[in-house]
UniProtKB/TrEMBL annotation:
It comes from the Bacteria. Residues 72-460 form the AMP-dependent synthetase/ligase domain. InterPro entries: Ac_CoA_lig, ACAS_N, AMP-bd_C, AMP-bd_C_sf, AMP-binding_CS, AMP-dep_synth/lig_dom, ANL_N_sf. GO terms for biological process: acetyl-CoA biosynthetic process from acetate. One of its GO terms (molecular function) is acetate-CoA ligase activity. This is Acetate--CoA ligase. Residues 15-70 form the Acetyl-coenzyme A synthetase N-terminal domain. Its EC number is 6.2.1.1. PROSITE patterns: AMP_BINDING. PANTHER family: ACETYL-COENZYME A SYNTHETASE, ACETYL-COENZYME A SYNTHETASE 1. It comes from Neolewinella xylanilytica. Keywords: Acetylation, ATP-binding, Ligase, Nucleotide-binding.
Length: 637
């Protein structure tokens, strides 16, 4: 088996020449990277593509299993090295270290258990679990036997879970009994039971991992204990041989319309790109301890806690807890405790910790840090500077990594220490990534610098989404129709005179709350479920910690209402429909919403009002009901 790794770039000059080569001959470049992995059969075509259907295939005919590349191929060279380093929520609880050999054995045991429970290639398994080693183990086990994982963040509600389970007809749900989060214990299995009660006809088995051991309700017709199914299994499990373009996983993400869509990633290209980008952005070297604080319920956790690091034979940390438990020093205490070399977190966490005061970060030994990263939303200058000064001591390079669930891997970022860095700028595209700015007005590509426009990608990259589960037309419509011939990201961006990219933010009806994507339509639909709500418009507004907060304008049915009581009920409704992450921060009751003559809500104006920018509302001449604007301004909360 191959023990090679993809190319690791170690200077800006090499980046530049590599970039040039990767764009001149993308197929040769990616074939060279792909050749460093273990394949059962080599591909016969590197790339076939069009962005019209769209139809993108990398490494066709190639046969592989990604878990053999994450695990088996490392056994001879680093079998005893820690693969997963697990830091529990409770700082006093024992750390768990799983070597590559142990992780391989555990994954095999679960793989065998899943097969015994009737799961096979192509079946979908939904995961609804906290950040415990068994989540990583069973996700990899799923990939080992060729089943498709769909991880749902354990903060989503029963309704949101049921929607996702049903969209992809999952045969099994793997969950925990309870989840430890700060000083709270969250009843995870109970939410799964609620989801099943809402109706999940495809689910045959719920596999329950015992985490806290507190009592749960049990239905013997579908519940099975994880340990009872797994403990006696063999530690060898033949990997299912997958085609490069077979589906590896589905991950649901919010869009500007309708229900969340299941972004589909496939085996070969995703493997090549997550490993390549991990190695280069974080400049990981053997022996380093790498820590990404994301949850595996998001793409960041998939690509840069699990697959990217394990493909590169890294030691990757999994953290069960939250940044502020037992206090706001936890991140830094853990960095010092495990001598973390690469640390990757979100601006919202940085801002929250910054607000608690410098005393929490000072006094912890952060001298092992070599690269610190940011992801999920634009990082404001103040947070960047604080991260740079207080965490990076003014000398550790920051990588501001721009990417999306759909891109599978990091697209624009510095390569830890080898790229020019500029606060609030993500920087240059990675090798093989052909970004473009497109004029909003003319639809033409903007080739000069500096320039700003719609952020697009002109050419396929190995880890791009292939489709949206069960609805290819939606994929085409969402990403490939705005700018014909290109992948449209939904973001607006600016390029400076040197060609460095700065991401401005979403240009569609998507808001980014604490680095989590929420569709305004989704939140509106949830609020509309309240029986007294007639109509709702939701917009984002600048929020000091979360980046964007959720501002809801709500029209109520006629009658005498207690506004405080209704606000609480509406928040509760959203919590039930989606989960606490979608709770509105502000709710304003209005008589009417400003609308165009064609009946469309003027969100532009609502955004301005929510942001407090009422002296500059722009053109309001197309409004059907200009008086609604004054009333909205008057009632601002
Ligand atoms: C959206 C994607 C994959 C990362 C986790 C979020 C925003 C992401 C940055 C960044 C500015 C960023 C964009 C993007 N975003 N990273 N470094 N600077 N904005 O993944 O939930 O798919 O959201 O997050 O708006 O479109 P996601």
């Amino acid at each position: 088996m191959s023990t090679q790794l993809p190319l690791q770039i170690s200077s800006f000059e090499t980046y530049q020449s590599t970039y040039e080569r990767s764009v001149r001959d993308p197929e040769a470049f990616w074939a060279e990277q792909a050749a460093t992995f273990s394949w059962h059969e080599k591909w016969n075509r590197v790339l076939d593509w069009n962005f019209t259907d769209p139809d993108v295939k990398w490494f066709q005919g190639g046969k592989l299993n990604i878990t053999e590349n994450c695990l088996d191929r490392h056994l001879d060279t680093r079998g005893d090295q820690t693969a997963i380093l697990y830091e529990p929520n409770d700082p006093e609880a024992p750390v768990v270290r799983l070597s590559y050999r142990q992780l391989h054995a555990e994954v095999c045991k679960v793989g065998n258990a899943l097969r015994e429970l009737g799961v096979g290639k192509g079946d979908r398994i939904c995961f609804y679990m906290p950040m415990v080693p068994e989540l990583a183990i069973s996700v990899l086990a799923c990939a080992r036997i060729g089943a498709i994982h769909s991880v749902v963040f354990a903060g989503f509600s029963a309704q949101a879970l049921a929607d996702r389970v049903n969209d992809s007809d999952c045969k099994m749900i793997i969950c925990s009994d309870y989840n430890n989060r700060g000083n709270k214990t969250i009843p995870v299995k109970e939410v799964v039971d609620e989801a099943l009660a809402l109706g999940c006809p495809s689910v045959e088995t719920v596999l329950v991992h015992r985490n806290t051991g507190e009592p749960i309700t049990w239905d013997a017709s579908y519940d099975q204990w994880y340990h009872e199914c797994v403990d006696e299994q063999s530690t060898e499990c033949p990997a299912e041989v997958m085609d490069a373009e077979d589906v590896l996983f589905i991950l649901y993400t919010s869009g500007s319309t309708g229900k969340p869509k299941g972004v589909v990633h496939t085996c070969g290209g995703y493997m090549v790109y997550t490993a390549f980008s991990f190695l280069n952005v974080f400049q990981y070297n053997p022996g380093d301890v790498y820590w990404c604080t994301a949850d595996i319920g998001w793409i960041t956790g998939h690509s840069y806690i699990l697959y990217g690091p394990l493909l590169c034979g890294a030691t990757t940390m999994m953290f069960e807890g939250v940044p502020t438990y037992p206090d706001a020093a936890r991140f830094w205490q853990v960095c010092a405790k495990h001598r973390v070399n690469q640390f990757y977190t979100a601006p919202t966490a940085i801002r929250a910790l910054m607000a608690r005061g410098n005393e929490y970060v000072e006094g912890h030994d952060l001298s092992d840090l070599k690269v610190i990263g940011s992801v999920g939303e634009p990082i404001n200058e103040e947070a960047w500077e604080w991260y740079h000064e207080k965490v990076g001591k003014g000398k550790v390079p920051i990588v501001d990594t721009w990417w999306q669930t759909e891109t599978g891997g990091i697209m624009i970022s510095g390569l830890g220490g080898h790229s020019p860095q500029k606060a609030t700028f993500a920087g240059y595209p990675l090798p093989g990534i052909q970004m473009a700015l497109v004029s909003k007005n003319t639809g033409e590509e903007l080739t000069e610098n500096p320039e700003s426009g719609l952020l697009c990608v002109k050419f396929p990259w190995p880890s791009m989404l292939r489709t949206t589960w069960g609805d290819h037309e939606r994929c085409r419509n969402t990403y490939f129709s705005t700018v014909p011939g290109m992948y449209f990201t939904g973001d607006g961006a600016r390029r400076d005179a040197n060609g460095m990219y700065r991401i401005v933010g979403r240009v569609d009806d998507v808001i980014n709350v604490s680095g989590h994507r929420m569709g305004t339509a989704e939140v509106e639909n949830a609020i509309d479920e309240h029986p007294l709500v007639v109509e709702t418009a939701v917009v984002g507004y600048p929020h000091e910690i979360k980046g964007q907060g959720i501002y809801a304008y709500v029209i109520l049915a006629p009658g005498n209402h207690d506004p405080e009581k209704l606000r609480n009920e509406i928040v509760e409704t959203v919590r039930t429909e989606i989960g606490p992450i979608a709770k509105p921060d502000k709710i304003q009751f209005v008589e009417e919403l400003p609308k165009t003559r064609s009946g469309k809500i003027m969100r532009r104006i609502l955004r301005k009002v929510a942001a407090g920018e009422t002296d500059n509302l722009g053109d309001t001449s197309t409004l059907l009901n200009p008086e609604a604007v004054d009333a909205v301004i008057e009632g601002k909360v």
